[in-house]
Write a structure and sequence with these properties.
With 231 residues, this protein is mainly α. Helix content is 86%, strand content 0%. The protein is globular.
Amino acid sequence: MTDGDGSAPTSRRRHIARLAVFAAFLAAMFYLVAVARVIDIEVVRRAVAATGPAAPLTYVVVSAVLGALFVPGSILAAGSGMLFGPLLGVFVTLGATVGTAMVASRVGRRAGRDSGRALLGTQRADRIDGLVQQRGLWAVVGQRFVPGISDALASYTFGAFGVPLWQMAIGSLIGSAPRAFAYTALGASIGHLSSPLAYAAIAVWCVSAIVGAFAARRGYRHWRGHASGRR
């Protein structure tokens, strides 16, 4: 009886420690890559350009990994525009965005899924799983529209909550399309910021940010109303 009573707190502490280590790792990577800028994107661009005809595919793979390591997607997308132009660059950016979402969500699922379920409890975890099955795809789409949220961090979180890979891929493709165009077009027109393409990119970014802020506010109010009704 004593052993049984002591095992639950011990198991809980183990899950908390596991999530804390994972969170600390993500925080350290975010600081090193996004704040301290230990990765030189210009060097990456030159290395990719040196691969010749394989450069677009190479950039997709490299950017997918760098995005999962918290290199800002706007910088990677702008680099895609500078290297490949606005048309091919958009497809390269979208491929990298989907790749980042799948890599990060897979890692998040492996690192935090079991511990998260254990800490939430079976009943609450099953309820969240039901919501994920119903609305996971559109949650990913909506998050991509909201400005100021790291897509990589959101993908790690979605993975920990069990959002399937196909929902991550399709949701990222749909939700990231406006910003992918905006940042890639800005990168492609970096020397001509008064061009119609640059103005179009800025307009698309502003519209997507407004739509994202409105959707986030509406979703938060809906969640609060649902929570109040349950109480």
